[in-house]
Every structure is written in structure tokens, then in C-alpha cells.
User: Fold this.
Amino acid sequence: MANILYSRKSLKQAKKTHDNHEMEIRELEKELEEVDKKRQEFEERIEEESQSQGRDLNLEESQVQEYHRLKEEAGKRAARYMQEMDTISREQKSDQDRYDNEMRKKNEMGAKIKQKESEMEENRKRVEKLNEYIRTSNQTVAEQKKIEEELTAQVEQANSRISEINVDLESIMDQLGEAKVDKHESARAMKKKELLDNLKGLFSGVHGRLIDQCEPSHKRYQIAITKVLGKYMDAIVCDTEKTAKDCIQYMKEQRIDPETFLPLDYLDVRSVNEKLREIREPKNVKLVVDVIRYNPPSIKKALLFACGNALVCETVEDARHVAFGTHERHKTVALDGTLFQKSGVISGGASDLKAKARRWDEKQLGQLKIRKEKITDELKEHLKMSGKNQNLAHTDLKLKA
Assistant:
């Protein structure tokens, strides 16, 4: 920058000196021109006087001396002027050379300035790119840290869940082992399951079999509930009579064995007799519908249709007493499956009833199988998540880089 200022100052000074010299040259040229003009005028005047007198002009001695003096002075002045002009010309040439040199330096300096400005612009762009790279890198680091934190949390959660699933899975395997579950279901059961799956796929109003949507609140009630539900235990619950008819028509076309349907909008169900819930003697007398858990709530109507106001009692004697021992008869069932109808008909708990009641256990085991498959799949997913430790290590390396 100092060199630039110095060059500009020198250039300005050289230009000023050059202008002054040119002015001096013009003034000297003007003076020389005036001297020549006066000399010419003098000579012309002498010539004119000579011609006007018609004879040779004889100058006096004093005039001749004056003439020679003036001529000599003019020559001296002309020589001096020429010398001064020559000196000034040389100075002018020197100044011109210096001026040209300064102009060359100026141009070179201008080129350097332009080059430096170009370099500065390139450096500015590089700085902008570096700043953008730094910003992007910081953002990437923040994102990678967030990913690392999320992966860490997911892996920790997966590892924790894996431990829980292993405990749960071990318990299920123990229960299945104790029950000695047959891995091969009967062909008939498979067909019935396949039918139900097809009906559910074809008709959205099909809920499922009654046994699959309810269960005894305690194992001790299994035989009694099985006895009361009777043929309705395997009945298919659906939303409307139309859905039931559509299902029946489909089964006829496919030549499938008949099934019992319980359309919820078609069932004629009486309300529960609340007084029966107040029986205190004998003890532990309950409405059968009250010892059944069910889901969804909408199937309650189907259960009420199948069970009515039937009561479950601890013993056969209790069931007999509640059925016929008062002025009002009731439908009752003992825990062993002995059923007392209002009409007086009594049916005992046959061996086939116990076999049928075991379906509640099979259902429970079926649910265990389903749960086993579900948590096994979940375990696989969590094991995959746990395997993301390698991803964590890779992310950590990227952050360090």
C-alpha cells in the first residue's frame, strides 16, 4: 500500500514538472518568435528605405555599429534561448521518461492491485465456503449426536425388554410343557377355524365363536359354564340377521356343515333378574353370566341369550334346593355340571362334559401359543435393535472424525 501511495505521489509530481516545462518552452518560443519578428521588421524597414531613396543606402558608422550590436545581441539572445530550449527539452524528455516510467509503474501496480483484489475475492469465497462447511459440519455433528442418543436409548430399551420377554417366554414354555400340549390340532378343529377365518374375511359383521370371546372368571366354573352354554358354546356371534343369512348361504354353496349363529339384532333376551343376585342361602350362589368374562362388551346380549338367569351353585344339593326348594323355580347348575331345569329335568355332568370343558384350558393354551408367537416376534425385533450397537460405534467414529 505504501508503494502505491509513493508511486501515485511521484506520478503527480512528474506530471506537474512536465506541465511547467511545457509552459516555459512555449514562453521561450514566443520570445524567440518576437526577436525574429523584430529582426525581420528591422531588415524590411532598411530595405524599404533603400528602395524609396533610389540609391544604395549608406549607413552612418553609428548606425552600422548599432546594427551589428543589435544583430549580435539578437544572435546571443537566440543562442541563449536555443540553449535554454535545448536544456528544457532535455529536461522535458527526462521528465517524459520519468513520467512514462511512473505510468508503467502505475499500470504494473494497477495490475497487481487487480490481481490482489481477485485473490481477495477468491479468499473471501473460500472463507464463505469454509464457514458454510463449518456450519454444515456442526449441524451434521448435532444430528449424529441426536441419532446416537436415540440409538442408545433404543438399544437400552431393547435390552431391557429382551430380559422381560425372556422371563415371560420361559414362563409360557413352562406352562405349555406342563400341559403337554399337542402341537397338531385335529382336522375338524382346523376346518372350523378355517371356516371362521373365511367368514370374517367375507363379512365384516362376524365377531367370532362365543367360546373365543369369553372365559370363566375362575377355573372352578369351567364345567358349570360349559353345561349351561351347551350348543351355544361354539355358536358364531354376528351383528345382524342378514349377516347370519349371508353366512349360511355361503356355507350352503360351499357344502359346509351347518353352524349355529347368534345375530345380536335378532336375539330376544330378557333382562337379568336382579333379585337373584341377592340370594344369601345357600352360600356362593351366583348368576352364571356374572362368572363369565367377555370381550367385546357387545356380545353380552349373546351370553344373556345362552345363559338366561341360570344360577351356579357349589354343590348338587345347593343347586337342587335353589331350583325347587322355594315357591319359585330356577334354572341351576352345580360345579360338577349337574343341571336342574325349571321343568324338573335333571341332567348330570357326563364324562364328555368334562372333556368339553377342557376346551377352556385348550383355549387358554391356544392363547399362550399366540402370545408365544407374538413375543417371539417381538424378541426378534428387539434383538435386531440390540444389534445396532455396531451402528452406535460407527456413529461415534464419525463424530470423532
About this structure: The two ends are 42 Å apart (CA to CA). Residues 178-185 have pLDDT under 50 and may be disordered.
